[in-house]
Every structure is written in C-alpha cells, then in structure tokens.
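Let's study a protein:

===
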Amino acid sequence: MCDDHAATGHLAGDQEADRGPGVSRRNFIHGTAALAAAGALVGEIPRRLPLRSAARPAASDGTSAYSMAMHIHSSFSEQDGSMDAQLFQATANSVDVLWWTDHDQRMDGRNYRDTVHFTSLTKEKGAPGEGGAWIWHEVESGPLSSQSGGGIVSSPASPNDPVSGGSMYLNARSTSGGTAKFGYYANSKPAGWNYRDNLTGQSLNIDVLLTQGWHNGYLELLITTSYHEASAGRPAGNYSLSYRFVPDGSSSRQSDGLLGVITIPVQSHSSNQWFTATITPSEDIAALWPDLDYRDFALWELNLSAASTGDHVAGYFDYLRFNRSISGEGFVKQQAEMMTELMTRYPRVVQQQGLEISWLLPHLSWFGGSVVPPDYGSTAPRDYTKFLAQTGVPDIHQAGGLVSYNHPFGYSSGPAMPPNSQNQMLAQVATALLPSGSTPAVLGCDLLEVGYNLRQGVNLAHHVALWDIMSRNAIFLTGNGTSDDHFGQNWIVGQEGNNWITSAWAASTGQSDLVAALAAGRAWCGSLSGYRGSMDLMVDNSCPMGSVSVSSASSRQLVASATNIPNNGSVQVLQGEVDFAGTSGLTSNAQVIGTFHASSFSGGSVSLPVNTSRASFVRTQVLDSSGNVVGLSNPVWLLRSQPPGGIPGPRSV
C-alpha cells in the first residue's frame, strides 16, 4: 500500500498537478504495450509525430512522451553555436522541446574586457575585474615572404590611448600576388573568453595607422561569428566579417558567401596620422544577409592581420574598445523575441527559455517560471556557493522554476581519468553535495545532470553513482541527460559522445506541464545515438516512476516498461538501500536484481517482486548489445517510514 499522508513541500509558483485516481496494473501494462507498438527501429531517428498525435507514446495516466534537449547554448554564450543551428539539430533529430540555457554571466558581460592597449602579447590585463591577460597567437596564411612579421612596439602609439607606450605592428608581403596574411588571434581563454558574446547592440572602436607606399593589400580586423545552417543558396558554416583598412578608395560592403567584406579607407595626410574606426557588426550582418536574424550572431573569434596581395603591406593597431549597449535582462528579452520569430522557421520544435547560472562553479540551470539573470550584488567569489544556496536557488523556486545541478564534476573535456582518480573525485563531489550545516543537499536543487558519457575525465558510471549516493540518502533528485552543446553542428555525435537528451511523461509541451513532470521525476534519459525508446516504472499499481512511497509491506510488485530496446540489448533493474549513510557511504549501493533481454519486453513491460523489508530505491537502465548503458529511468523510492525532510509534494502518492 502507499501512504499518502504527512507529505511536505510543493512545486513553488504552480499548483500541484491533479494526479487523478490510482492507475491499475492492467491499465499500466496496456499502456506499455501500446508504447512497444509505437517504437521505431534502433539506430534510426524516430519519425516525428505531431505533439497531440494519438500515435505518440502515451502512459496509462494519459500523459504523453516528449523528448527534450535540456542544456543547449546559442549565440548568447561563448562558442559558435546559434539558435538557428540548434533548432535545425533539434528538428533533424526529432527532439520535441529545446530549452535555451545560455550563460547568465555572458548575457551580463560580467568581468568582460572593455579596452585593449597593446602593451604586450601575453601579459596585458584589463582594468580590475576584467579577468586575466589575453594571449595573442601568431597566425599566418598564404605565400608569405620571410620579411613578414610583427609584434608589440613602443612607438608609434595612438595619442587617443590613455595608456601610452604600445601598439601592434603588422607587416606582410606576398611572394606571388596571392593573398598572404600575417597576424594575431586574440585568445582570451585565460581571461574566461571575456570578449565572446552576442553582437547585438555592440560596436568596436580601434585606432589604425597605415604606413605609406602600398596599395595592393589591407590591414584587417576579422570577426568570426556564429555557425548557421544553409540559407539562400549559401552552405552551412561560420560567418565572418572582414573589416579591411586601405590607404585610399571608397568605402564598400559586400558579401561573398559566408564572408562579409567591409572596406574602410583610411585617409592619411602624414606618416603619423592615426584613424579611429567604429564598426557595428550587427548592422553589417543585417545588410549583408537579410534572410537571417542579425541578432543570432556572436563575437566568437577576433584576428588582427596585415594582408598582402602584392605590395609590402604594413601598419599599426592600437586602443581597441568594446561598447556594449545591451546586457542582462535586455538579452533575455531579446532571446524571447527571437524565439517567437524562429517558430516560423522551425515550427516542429517547442522552445522554452531557461538560463544557466554560471558566474563560477558550480553551474545551475533554471527551468520554468519567470527567468531573469540573478543579481549577484556585492557577492565575493568565495561566497558564490553560499549565494546560490541562500538566494539563487530560493529565488528560482519563488519564481516558479526548477533548478538543475549541472556537470557536477566540472565542465572540461579531455580523456578519462584513471579509475582510482574517478573514485576519489566521486567521493569529493558527493561529500560536497550532501547536506552540511545550514547548506541543503545539492544546494537545494531539484535535478542532477547524470547523462554524460565523459565530462571532466569522469565517465557515465561515476555520474550515475553520484546520483545513487544522493538517492540512498533520500535526496530526491530527477536525473536528466544532457549534451551541454555549444555548437549546433552534430547532436548525434556530440562532444566526447555527450549526446543525451531527457524525455518526460507530461500532459503537454507547455512549460507548466513539463516542469510538473520534471518535479515529479516522471522522466527518463538516453543517448541520441543509442536509445530513443520510452521508460517507466509502477509499483503496486499506483506508485509511478519518480514517486516516494511509504509502506510497511516487506514485498512489493514492480512493473518496469521499456520500448525500442536495442537489438540484443537488455534492461536491468537495480535496487539500492536507503540507508542514510552520508559520508560513510560515498559509493553507489545499487545492485542489479534482474536482467531482461529485449525479447522480454515484447508486451511492453516486465513484472517482478521487490524485497522492501528495508527502505530502498529502484531504477532501471537500458544496455545496448555491447553492454553499454544507453538509457536511464528515474527511481521510485520505497520507504518504510517518513524521511527526515519529508516528501516533496509532486512526488507524494
């Protein structure tokens, strides 16, 4: 039996969903059989069904299966993705819902560089609060002569620059008349990539001095911007803006496929006359490629070069300034407006706006409710975690949202660490996420990202083990699968194979319905390339996946459903004791209690008794023919008494 009293907590900002009457085991099995019939062949992207199609997989409680990409970045973050490219990927991969989770600190321009004085290639920092030094990397292309080169010189320097004593000198000579370049790429990664942001409302000023005596070539400020899908006869790829400073001629602006060329004549009447150029990339993008939304472009890479088409081209750059007129809530509002316009281009994907709270680690994602960038105020870096626990997460809950604890081991890429190192990392992170003093478990978050094949050198098994550690301590988290994709070029492959999505049993793709499903744990996750089926659990006819049930029964009946299992794959049922081990149990205690070949699910589900003489949680996972985990259900918790923190309202049965 299920105890439905003494539940505490609720989904802030939204009424608790009407769960309706209990679902009978017969109806549950009938529903899972229908799911099996609706499954597509493994290895194929499933045919997209209309959101309200009767053929869409449905649970016996009337909810339907909706797939979601839950951690996706666009032109408002630090890489070259665009909203356009990400929506194309969602459409191509038959993903129903895309949650935008761009970085709040990039929308804010927090600690962003405003000025470059060109006093060093490696050591020059910005003003206090603008991060570390950039590193200017040498870049060459074309038939350059050995006379080409450049670097930082103390003189000449722009008289406009309040910091005297530096400029960047560049010179290039082509040996054949073909374009040859020598220059530098501004690598701001050591400073947190603190010029990479959306270009809307942004202008750049730079002072330029050309040497005399050349005509065949140009000095160049090159902005490489976002990746977009094929449009108006142009191929898919990254768009670029080449601002070319020439000694004479007239100004012009023209496009050549994905390259925009803006020619700026520098009228010089003496050998030491500096010219201040103001460029507005968004205006140029709007004029050059009117079929695309000019707001969906980022300043991704910045190069300064001398380019020769025959002459010995030389000159200087100094005093680069970034002028940003939009930030924070302005960008959040702009993105919402862009979502509406992009609906006409990608009508088959439902867009939901979220946000990644990511000034420092840990990063948290905000799903649902009224999304606004947090106000960090005077918070010092050492107090960031305290701010999240005491202000950030409670404010999101008050606004009607849920919070995900993202990439819990870190966000870097790289090879897998040795197993012992991964075990040590697991123990460290689990200790940090368990409740401590006044800090709630996992900072009070509702979801935990678990579906990563490899992140920060930590594999999928250890991500899942971290989740199990929380589950054994009655910390009720909805596990979700994500990709954290910043590029929008190949979701199936993903970076380091991180290509997971999350699906939910929800009444609709409306935000409140999706949030309600996530809050209740009515979700599962899987690899785009490995598993596109559906998963569910039901205990004693009325305790579904994600729920927390209290009963004194020593044995209970579990029905596990799974569809579209890979050929020669299997489903495992795992059970772990809820023993409140805390820091005394920093490993997963989930044990396999049943393994079922794909053929066992011809009717959509299997049924088995579960020993509940001790409190436990139960979950399932799908394995492919090689034994790799490609799908994960959320748990159902089968307790024998009320947990110390109570049962959250959405999980109560």
About this structure: Confidence is low (pLDDT under 50) at residues 1-43.
